[in-house]
Write a structure and sequence with these properties.
- The protein has about 120 residues and is an alpha+beta fold.
- It has one domain: SCP2 sterol-binding domain (Nonspecific Lipid-transfer Protein, Chain A), CATH 3.30.1050.10.
- It is built from 5 helices and 5 strands.
- A 5-stranded mixed beta sheet has the order 3-2-1-4-5.
- A hairpin with a 4-residue loop joins β1 and β2.
- The longest helix is centred in the first third of the chain and has 11 residues.
- The chain is globular.
- The mean pLDDT is about 90.
Length: about 120
């Protein structure tokens, strides 16, 4: 799920800044008809909890924990940064345990379509 940002924006981005920029990479058409909540539990320095709620092509991103997420993605802050910068392959990260998913795995795979590459 590489966030499509300019090179200057991408330099030294924090996890918070990546979540703040998430709406810029959101593909409304790809999310049409989808109703899901992605919970992100980012561990380590600069980590925290955020969620992205998608309802029929609309996105709301907020800091905190959602009461009933469809999927929970847990990973270290630096791994999340590397993932969004395209330095970490999502499939390899999952296979090696750098990404842990609880809930609907299919939603995890859809992220590459919902957010710009």
């Amino acid at each position: 799920m590489k966030i499509n940002l300019g090179e200057e924006e991408r330099k030294k981005m924090t996890v918070q800044e990546i979540f703040d920029a998430m709406p810029k990479s959101f593909q409304k058409e790809a999310a049409k008809g989808l109703s899901a909540v992605y919970q992100f539990d980012i561990t380590g320095d600069g980590g925290g909890k955020w969620y992205a709620a998608i309802t029929n092509g609309d996105l709301a991103v907020a800091k905190g924990e959602h009461a009933s997420p469809s999927i929970t993605i847990t990973m270290a802050a630096q791994d999340y940064i590397n993932l969004t910068e395209g330095k970490l392959n999502p499939q390899m990260a999952f296979m090696t345990g750098k990404i842990k998913i609880k809930g609907d795995l299919g939603l995890g795979m859809k992220m590459q379509q919902i957010f710009k590459q």
